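Tutorial, part two.
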Amino acid sequence: MNTAASGKIAIVWRGDRTTRREATPRNNRFHRIFEELAALGIEAEPAVYDETFADAVRAQLLQANGVLVWVNPLQDGKTRHFLDALLREAASHGPWVSAHPDTILKMGTKEVLVRTRHLGWGSDTQLYVSMAQLREALTARLVAGAARVLKQNRGNDGQGVWKVEPVASGGVPMVRIAEAAKEGPAEEVPLDAFIARCEPYFERGGTIIDQPFQERLGDGLIRCYMAADRVAGFAHQYPKGLLPPSSIRPHTKKRMYPPDAEPFQRLRTLMENEWTPQMMAALALKAVELPII
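Running the prediction step on this input gives:
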């Protein structure tokens, strides 16, 4: 860490000029993070970011010892392209950055599902790097009749995550599609029309990941929250956008659990003792590079 700096932790999130001007440790959704750091004797300050005042944020980060970043890959029509460059620059001058953009590229994009498909959490996962490859491979896989899930490499909140299943037709190949980001009935469209929707996902070297749809999704999914290589908690949630209305249960609100919650101790053991070390080896990651949250 940069011992010549002020000793502060800068907490970065996206906002406009008004949000940056009025931000305090108490008036935002990260207030508990500020409180926990203060309880440890660590001073933290808001570092609200937008491309239009990136120079001010750069100057702020260079005066910090550490930087914690909560900025979505996609938000308000913007990406992290310029922010990631800023964070790399800041890290090169001394401040510790979590998560560093290079770490995110290794483990924080959907491509990690392909690079770790041989681990215990893996499945028949494929990577498409072009429209031609998507068209050829997806068409062949749908012939088997099973639903697939396609995901753009960088996204959040279900954006660019599609359930795709073939629909019997006597002429033009048809598919039934549903996007995880949207609730509502699935659409039936020609396969070529769906593939055309995916073209923007290949911009700037983007890729698409293809996995089998898990039919047990109606039971919900368990999310592990990690602090570096230790489990910090769990969530049980239901990705409603990919489920038919008949499968959605009435108690679909996300439920949070502490790391010692009894139902998840086998999963905790796997995450901490097997899967995380195996992932680090597969991705050539050191423990110090893992995101702190």
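DSSP finds nine helices and 13 strands in the chain. In part three we will examine how such features are distributed along the chain.
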